[in-house]
Amino acid sequence: MLADQFISSWEELVNFDRLREYRLSRTLHEIKRLELDGVILFKADNIRYVSSIRPLIWEAGYQTRNFVILNKEGDISLFVASGDYQRVKLNNPWLSNVKPLASMEDAGIARRVVSDSLIPEIKRMNLGNSKIGLDVTTFYTTDFIRKSLREIGSDLDDSGETAIREARTIKSDDEMRLIQAAGGIVDAGLAASQDNIFAGNKENSVAGQALLTMYSLGTEWMPANPAVCSGNPYRRFSTDKIIRYGENVLVNLSAMNDGYCAEATRTFSVGNPTEAKHRSIDNIREAYSRLLGLLKSGLSIGDLTLESRNVLLEFGLERNSRVSLRGAGLSLTDLPIAIDITHDSTVEGSEAVLKPGMALIPELRIDDNESDPTIFSDTLQLTDQGIAHLTRYQSKEEW
Question: Are residues 214 and 285 in the same domain?
């Protein structure tokens, strides 16, 4: 169920005041650890983490329509898309300093916003002669901010993204409840998908049924478009291709609940697959289960890489396989990020250690260009005792 739709007097599900306090305290801790005096954040999910607004999202305006300034004392100044200003003022009483913002996708407008709005607010928040972190925005906006800050004795530092990403890494119980609710929506979408996978149907029809189901359950947005791929080669999207008897069909779905994301992938066989193909999928599913069992608190990404390779060797899957690990939260790319840990011995972040409170998305993909690809992935919670499934859909073949 959606944790924020069924609030009651007889049990506490998500305490949103506590959630806001936790996220802000995590951010302030990282700002001080990196010796910053404040941050300027443009990314929609970072803004949401700090200010708890639900920003309007445009694919073309993800880093130009809103921004927030936070100083190390915890003062927040929010600049919100002008068309959304009245809603935010009405619905977000915890924010006392909210101002309307023109779209900064035009360089001329961006320059004027920086000189007329951002810099005066920086001064008001006592961030002159300071070290200020930035996450990500357009090149010209970054340049305007850097030059303008120099004029008031402040330096722009690129560690703003590091601060917020580190803050977001460890989730509170409230955050995990929200991710779990998103996972339930994904599970329902996978069930609807499997019910519509049959020879003669189209990939887009399967994806459409998944979308209908997930939106009816209240998904806020699609963090990634639904991917339904039948046969070979693998594609991370759906088409009007007709599904054929005997093919594998990959379904990758994601959902968002109160800003928090979950994702899962399942591989289904159409009709009555050959015994060899069925054994192959079962073998890969068993290997995937073994890989999930490797995820333990205190394990480094480097050690996980070595142990993952050993599992794939044991199951005869060392060729054309890929194991990846990502974090989940207000995006599907939270820390840690380790891409292709099975083959890249110099993977970036190999010294990083898995910690309780991380939400993880492991994925096993087998794609040899000779048979239909097979993928399994889930969203998991890492605890002191191991993993807890936040997505848990079992296909009918597993019942």
Answer: yes
Angle at CA of residue 154, ends 159 and 131, nearest 5°: 30
Residue 113 and residue 247 in one domain: no
- In this prediction the pTM is 0.93
In a domain, residue 5? The reply is no
> For residue 27, what are the domain limits?
16-168
- 94 and 183, same structural domain? no
- Alpha-carbon span 234 to 375, nearest angstrom: 10
DSSP letter for 171, please: P
The pair of three-digit structure tokens given for residue 119, joined into one six-digit string: 């810099």
DSSP H stretches of helix in 251-399: 275-293, 301-314
DSSP state of 272: S
Tokens 């979308």 identify what position?
A: 211
Spatial distance between the Cα atoms of 20 and 6, rounded to a whole number of angstroms: 19
How far apart CA 372 and CA 367 sit, in angstroms, is 7
Place of tokens 């601060």: 163
SS3 268: strand
DSSP three-state, residue 308: helix
Q: 75: buried, middle or exposed (CB in 10 Å: 19+, 13-18, 0-12)? A: middle
User: Which residue shows structure tokens 């130009």?
Assistant: 64
Low-confidence ranges of the chain (pLDDT < 70): 1-7, 59-60, 272-279, 341-350, 396-399
Beta bridge partners of 254: 263
**The total number of structural domains that make up the chain:** 2
Query: Cβ distance 51 to 78 under 8 Å?
Result: yes
- What single string gives the DSSP state of each residue in 80-142? EEGGGHHHHHHH-TT---EEEE----SHHHHHHHIIIIIHHHHHHTT-TT-EEEE----HHHH
pLDDT tens track for 289-314: 999 999 999 999 888 988 999 999 99
